[in-house]
Amino acid sequence: MQMLHLPPVRDHHTHAGLSASLRGCLDLSELDRKEALASLKALPEDRLNTVHGWHSGKVPLAPADLENLPPILLINMSLHGFLLTPRAVARLEPVEPEILANRHDPLWCERNTPRLLGFYGRTARLEPDKFEAFMEGLEAQGIDRVDDLLLQSQNAWEVVQASRWADRVAFWTTPRIFDTHLSPEARATISGFKIFLDGALGAHTAALSEPFRDGEPGLLTYEDGPLRELLWDLQSRGIGVAIHAIGDRAIEQAMGALESLARQGRTFPRVRLEHVQFITGTQARRARDLGLHLSMQPNFSEDSLSYQDRIAASACARNNPFRMLIDQAGFRPGADLFFGSDGMPYGLQAQLQWGLFPPVSGQALTLDELRAGLGAAPTGPTRAFRVDPGLRRVTALP
What we know:
This protein is of the alpha/beta class and 398 residues long.
């Protein structure tokens, strides 16, 4: 048994604005199917309800389940994929016809992930009191600073800037939002652009080399040529880029495009590869040689358990290969390997739990590696944790 007293840390991958918007909305993440259906049926009939935390494996929902429910936007816990009840469709037809027309097309949805996240945020509505409560909640869980990987709007930026947390939030956003929705003042605060190369495990759309158990191959949201053209344009803007790539096929596409730019003398001030859960040893060494930063989530090691229903056993074993990245490829936590949560869940306890006691030995991190990859924040109270190696459990203490 070990007692830890840790200073607050930085979460390098959040959707702080969206998560704050969803505060107060029904969260299904801890409910079984019976409890979830009862909670959905109890929602108000007179407005569109936003619901999050839906795990399609644990709470499968058929069209018949949705038929008599109130107006509900039901968001997959991965944020990739959503369902609408028939009454929600009726409410949204006048205002979101394109989203409604394409909602059953996985490729369109993945290519328009930023737009859909903005749709979620607008539906749930970000307000100053929600953001304040969200950040206070993070602070209580040992998180003092965050990178918001998808600033959704000028309004969201203004809410954050008007708060006491403004200097603790770093923003990234999509090229479209940067060019069309942000003021010059907001653009000046953006750390870099965010682009998505594949989907997510929860939605069966991450681009892995092996298909999902249902035969779905995952998908790439760009062809090679358009991706290289996009990166060429973004490189001229003088800020960084964060590239979402979960599967090894998406990582390979990112590596090829970045290597092509580098051969032509085009480099970004900083490149972050986000998630890279299924990065291979060869890809890792290429990424290191290019000076790329890996932004990963120790809590996603749990995917090797929770997604056994949809990914092959070999993929479960390859997920989050931290020991390979550190011991063989030479990545250094805190220098070019950084940790965050993606909000699944937030908090230092989950990082410690899945970093110290993962389901696969190659996922294990030491406490020093975890702390370096998160980085100590300069303010805030310490948090106490009890670590029990025998039970393989980390408990947050009051």
